[in-house]
């Protein structure tokens, strides 16, 4: 019977993830082990649960019929494990988290490591990427996201704010006319980040001013790559203050147009709205909120 439950859990993971390899990453199993459990379940049921191709897997009619009950079984198992940890000083379970790739020096990252030290019976998997993940499809319990949230079916809680500053290297600024206005800034080489809009808003003399660069010289897909390009003297960009504080203090980077202030943005805990919310997810969010003023500069 335990093998049957395991097979059903693998079946649900494959249905949600869309492939054997993605389900394996979610379950921390090899693709061959995932395939073995799924094939064993199909053999016992005497039917195929998926149509298979070289690129994707889709549910058969039998797979569609079996999925709701299998999903309820997996949810009930997770709920039982959560119930054991509710009110306990020693929670047990697993958390799958995704968060931005930058910010190794920020208190946010350190708070998660502190949570891991406090609760050694909780297995924590952290994926870092500046690109947004599909929480449901990829099986994440929690995401840390920055900026403005798009409308979605996800739950969210604002847990902190973060500041942004416009920076460039002294070498780059010395190579061009002095930047005194937004018009001067528009003529600078701008470092773009793929998933972020180019248009920005500044607060200046009590007014809100929109800005769009005219020269996008370089586009990258991570905040860390943008920082590296700026340090190399390739242009200008706004970055999270916590990522560049040390470089500004040492003179490796210079703040540009500091009188044009960029609005603070939110830091959000985001999690799937599946009806049943994991007790461990709630515990981690509460842990972060205990010290929200220190999460990011």
Give structural notes.
The protein is α/β, with parallel strands linked by helices and 297 residues long. The chain has three domains: 2-85, Arc Repressor Mutant, subunit A, CATH 1.10.10; 93-162 and 266-294, Periplasmic binding protein-like II (D-Maltodextrin-Binding Protein, domain 2), CATH 3.40.190.10; 164-263, D-Maltodextrin-Binding Protein, domain 2, CATH 3.40.190. It is 40% helix and 25% strand. The chain has eleven helices and 14 strands. The protein is elongated. The mean pLDDT is 85.
Q: How would you describe this structure in keywords?
A:
single chain, 297 residues, alpha/beta, Arc Repressor Mutant, subunit A, D-Maltodextrin-Binding Protein, domain 2, five-stranded mixed β-sheet, three-stranded antiparallel β-sheet, 40% helix, elongated
Chart the SSEs and their pairings.
Layout: H1 2-17, H2 20-27, H3 31-45, E1 50-52, E2 57-59, H4 61-85, E3 93-99, H5 107-118, E4 122-128, H6 135-138, E5 142-147, E6 155-162, E7 164-168, H7 170-174, H8 182-186, E8 189-193, E9 200-204, E10 207-211, E11 215-220, H9 223-231, E12 237-240, H10 241-250, E13 254-255, E14 265-271, H11 279-289
Parallel strand pairs: 3-4, 3-5, 8-11
Antiparallel strand pairs: 1-2, 5-14, 6-14, 7-12, 7-13, 9-10
Helix pairs in contact: 1-2, 1-3, 1-4, 2-3
Global morphology: elongated
Could you tell me the number of beta strands?
Answer: 14
Q: Low-confidence stretches at least 5 residues in length (pLDDT < 50)?
A: none
Which radius of gyration do the C-alpha atoms yield?
A: 24 Å
Average pLDDT taken over every residue: 85
Q: Assess the beta-strand content as a share of residues.
A: 15-25%
Overall SS class: alpha/beta
Q: Could you give the order of the helices and strands?
A: HHHEEHEHEHEEEHHEEEEHEHEEH
